Structures are given as structure tokens and as C-alpha cells.
Amino acid sequence: MSRPDIDDTTLLAAALAGMLPDDPPEPARAASLRARILDSARRSRTQVVRADEGDWTPFLPGIHIKTLRRDAHTCTQTSLWRIDPGAVIPPHPHTSEEECLVLSGSVVHDSIEYCAGDYLLAAPGERHQAFTSPAGALLLIRGELLPDPARVRALLETPPDA
User: Count of CB atoms within 10 A of residue 139's CB?
Assistant: First the structure.
């Protein structure tokens, strides 16, 4: 005989702890609980961002970023960078590892052109020289959290003597 005063969550916790009540739940309740557990186990934990979803945020002149994943706990993010022809990513340091995959177009760094399919890994402490993109590019970058784009634009627009 099932105890109606025990809710399903408590019953599940008790089962997982090996402390099931002496009387099993009624068959209908057991079937319902089993179905909920299996449904939960089947649900995908995959996060999906479709190509037409998300916002392209202006970051630097000629560069827009679409954040795919941001993890404040690990201080990392994964993003797409759309670089217009002629745009420049200025010199910058890395406090943690950064991965970059060129998806289309190309970027030039230290006089070397990197094209679609090329992968770059920057080590912590590395300081990049400027990247240019004469014909434009689309990059997938996984690395440290980026500063707020509005703050970056404000810093770039502020005259050096201000």
C-alpha cells in the first residue's frame, strides 16, 4: 500500500538513498514515476544556437561578435567574430588560453595569412600583435570573457589626452 503523504520527489530521493518505504507505490504511481525519470534521462542537455538566432553585437570598428556560450563560473566564452574587409583586431594580451578557428575568409598576423580551417591556440600570457583581415573573415573563438562591447567602444572613442 502506497503512502499518499510521500510525494514523488521524496520517494525518488528515498529510492536513490536506498531507503524505500516497506510498501511499494501503487502500480499507476510507479509507472508515472518511471515515465518521468525516463523522460528526464532522454532529454538532451545539448545547448543549441541556430544560425539565425542570437545577436551580432558591434565590438570594434568593423567587428561584430555573436556570443554562443558564456560561462561566468569558468570565466570563458565561445563566440563568432564577423570581421569586415579591412578591419583590424588591435594588439592584445591573453590571461588565459584562447582557441581560434577560421571558418571563412582569412586573417593576417605577423605577416602570415590564416585561412578557412586554420586553427590558432594562444597560450596564457601571450601578447598578440594586430590581426588584419583584408577580405573579411568569420572566426570561432573560445577564450576568456570579453569586456563589455560598449565599454570597449567608449575607450576607443575617448581621445588619449582626455
Answer: 23
- Is the Cβ–Cβ distance between 59 and 65 less than 8 Å? yes
Helix (H) or strand (E) holding 69: strand 63-71
* pLDDT tens by residue, the chain, 162 residues: 456 667 777 766 766 666 666 777 788 888 888 888 877 777 777 888 888 999 999 999 999 999 999 998 999 999 999 999 999 999 988 889 999 999 999 999 999 999 999 999 999 999 989 999 999 999 999 999 987 766 666 656 666 565
CA-to-CA separations, 115 to 88, 91, 102, 111, 135, in angstroms, rounded: 16, 20, 6, 13, 11
